[in-house]
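User: I'm writing a short report section on ligand binding and want a predicted complex to refer to. Could you take this sequence and S-adenosylmethionine and write out the structure as tokens? A short remark afterwards would be nice.
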Amino acid sequence: MSALRRPLKSLGQNFLVDGNIIDRIIDAADIHPAQPVLEIGPGRGALTSHLAERAGRLMLIEFDHALAAWHRQQFATTPTVSVVDGDVLKVDLAVLLAESPERWNVVANLPYNISTEVLFRLYNVHSRLERMTLMLQKEVGDRLVAPPDCSAYGVTTVLLGLWFDISRVIVVRPGSFHPSPKVDSVVLSFVPLSEPRAEVGDEDLFRAVVKSAFSMRRKTLSNCLKSAEFSSIISSGELLELCGIDGRRRGETLSLEEFALLSRTLSEMLGAAALGGGHDSGN
Ligand code: SAM
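Assistant: Sure. The structure tokens for the complex follow:
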């Protein structure tokens, strides 16, 4: 593009300039002509023209107004490409994705400062997705593929792991971008599951349990759950006992199945408490 403005650090503008990496991402995205594709943060279009060539329909969401206007101009005569000039954290993704009955293929080299928030938003629309190929800061990506009982294992590992098969495509070094970031990046492939990996019951409760278990990483599970909102209604000690989970363990040692068991049991206990109006504050 002409009249290039300096990349904006505030918008995480590290543009891909490495043809090999671009090819690897496009290959991994496995785009079929019938599939609609969403690119978040197309930037200067390193991936965009490849996506436009392959996709039956391409939607771009770009927060940088100048870049969004540039893409609009580029694709003015291409009716299959639409541009949303906006913040991916503010738009209603469910509404945008409802524009096509087909499930979407999401491709993005995400701005690092908002990547975890974007992941949660995409998690919320998992049933509308066919696949995601996302570039993330390596540290964030490592968390998503971490096994239990290691420091990288956390809220995003458990929540995203419930609904996606996640695999590593390639590690990307700083020299593949302009300007170069200070850290390595990784491209991950996310394939949504048709059923959740574990039966969690109420997903809001599951999220609440997982978030509270990791809320104080140095504290025991028992202490973490005591400060969760639901512990004013039910005893977290009883919850752990019913699940046969030792409260002295730390949240990061629990498997997805154990979190699912906690969530289902919590749901039953809350149901019983609502019926009986009873409340054991013994924690
Ligand atoms: N896809 C391009 C590439 O690979 O070269 C650009 C990637 S750059 C890391 C991130 C892009 O996301 C930038 O174009 C930036 O303007 C855009 N962006 C930043 N914050 C955004 C937000 N909240 N919503 C939508 N786009 C955003």
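A remark for your report: Residues 256-276 form the longest helix (21 residues). Strands lie at 15-16, 36-40, 57-62, 81-85, 104-109, 129-137, 164-172, 177-178, 185-192.
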